[in-house]
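Table S2 (continued). Query chain:
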Amino acid sequence: MTGNKIGNKGGMHFAAMLQINNCLEELDLGDCDLGTQSLIALTTVLNNNRTIRAINMNRPLLYSQQEESTVHIALMLKVNKNLKELHLGKHEMKDFGVERLCEKLTSNFTLRYLDLRCNNITRDGAKCLAELLKLNTALKIIDLTANRIEDEGAIYLSEAIALNTNLKALAIPNNNIGGKGLVSLTKAMKINTTLSHIYVWGNKLDEPTCVAFSDLIKSGRLLEKNTDVSPYDVDGHLHPAELFHGLQRHYYLTPSYGQDHDSACNSALSEDL
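Corresponding output:
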């Protein structure tokens, strides 16, 4: 349903359908102009739904700054035992909303993929996520693309990654992260043995960062197909080049382009979801 402007009324019809449907596993309502009422209705139904495994509720039309829908989503995550993939991009979510999600996710042992891209999350929200990751929850993929966690947020995540043994992919492009934060992530990856995919393009990729990523790639710790940056040498100095890789290459358990299970496609991430 992506991009169909069904609005609040259409969202309410989908919520009513989910009350009786017992076979639908994936539902994409991104960019459908959902409102607060339909978001709350959908999350209320998901409290008891036993079949939905993946849902996209990206870019609703919200006119309140109180994050009521995020609070209801958090409450749903505490009791839902089947949802594995959740997309909450462009929800105007702030650190308050992330904190509510993390509080409830401590009791969730099924969600694998959490997409929070294009929100208003700062270092404080990243700190909440880091504390959650230290608990080694079921989360395998986290997308924080286009937020503003900066160096401090990246360092919080680095500390958690050094302890976590479940996370497989982290996307943090366009987060105003400098060399200090990015280098801390590469150091954490040398300790961590399970994080295999990391995406950082759009941050401040200085030469120390390029050196750190180059070392990871040369050592075999990070495969070039599993990141979006490739350092190259010019007159003895390393510079970054962008690789067009990212989490969007597998959307809803299959790649959005390329062949499934192709060596150049990261759809393999979805196999364990």
